[in-house]
Amino acid sequence: MEFTDDNEVMKNQSSVILKRFPLIDKENIDPTGPRREAVDPNVRLSVEQLKNAGDLAVANASEEDKVAAMMHQSTEAFGPANWERAPPFGYICNICRKGGHWNHRCWHKPKGKDMPKVRRGAGIPRSQLELAKDPAESGALLMDDGTFMVPKLAK
User: Fold this and answer.
1) Is the pTM value of this prediction over 0.85?
2) How far are the Cα atoms of 84, 110, 136 from residue 91, in angstroms, in the given order?
3) pLDDT at site 129
4) Residue of 128, 131, 132 whose CA lies nearest to 116
5) Where do the DWNN domain residues begin and end (predicted)?
6) Which residues, 6 or more positions from 152, have their beta carbon under 8 angstroms from its beta carbon?
7) Average pLDDT over residues 89-114
8) Fewest CB within 10 angstroms: 12, 45, 47, 49, which?
């Protein structure tokens, strides 16, 4: 069945086969313009060329080269270029209690023992909390704005 009307409704679970017809406009073709060079199907692609290929299944290369290119493409998102991203808003370093950097990139090395781990106060209503006198106080929770609060029930 061929659909010619754009407003025609298709039945549920029906298959669709699309046809593409090139638009031929001979008046706008530039005969002196650049042309695409034909790709020789007999030429084997190198691993470096395969690393940028979109579809390795149809590429003309050996299986070993395809596997090597696939391994490169699968780990490309985890490469060194993607390691350094800015921490999200509200993230606070557990070492120096300041934002803007990750824990493993903290330049502040405390002398003596490390600072205690910080618990986040997510999910607890502020009406149930009161401001902490000291961040090292027992039960202190770090809020999104960087303040430390203690649950009223803990006192």
Assistant:
1) no
2) 15, 19, 18
3) 92
4) 132
5) 1-22
6) 128, 129, 130
7) 78
8) 12
